[in-house]
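Service request form, structural biology core

Requester: graduate student, group of Dr. S.
Request type: structure prediction, single chain
Budget code: on file
Notes: please return the result as structure tokens.

Sequence provided:
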Amino acid sequence: MKIAVTGKGGVGKTTFAATLARLYAAEGRPVLAADVDPDANLGLALGFDEETLDSIVPISKMRKLVEERTGASANNQFYHLNPKVDDIPEKYGKVCNGVRLLVLGTVETGGGGCVCPEHVMLKRIINNLVLRREDVVILDMEAGLEHLGRGTTEGVDAFVVVIEPGARSVQTYKNVKRLAKDLGVAQVKVVANKVRNQDDEAFIMEKIPQEDLLGMIHYNTDVIDADRQGKAPFDFSEEVTGEIRKIKDRIDHQ
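Core staff response, request fulfilled:
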């Protein structure tokens, strides 16, 4: 199972992605969490210490590795479109709380449709992350829709769009659903986060089709406290973890 978690910046997609990964790991499932956000902070949300995270270089920044695997260089503008990547998670991933973290980063130049060696490398890695039937891969994507424009997330089983109770977040969900269809991804689901009251719940129920709504996570200051202390929400808030556990159960039965 390969899930791409996406949404606008600040909606809480990293909190959701990290807690979902921890829940699967707690069941004994092999879990790989890939951080594809240039503002990489999935590791902290998983419970990694800052010293370990400071030692990690995103794959997209490993110029020598990209050149070795793709054959690209300053003197060679031709490169392999199918570089060897099957050893990347084991070689460059770090493990904490049963989750293997792989920091991929993103391609910051070239714009939409970039086919530079870095993009080819990231796309190839993402497409090859699931090895066994019981594996779970969770991709914490960059904010916005750039990754959909580049096609980096082709090959995922489902997009989970994290939204807030607001018109702009709902529009993001609609745009993801439209673009995902072009990539051949039929499953686009929604998690509503920072839901404050019954009015917020009613808004979500009105705007999101029932078959697409996985569940709601209510506004909780425990998440803010966890972030302030550099702790994983999974270890800090039983209430939020419980709500995400119910969402996970719905994912498992889709």
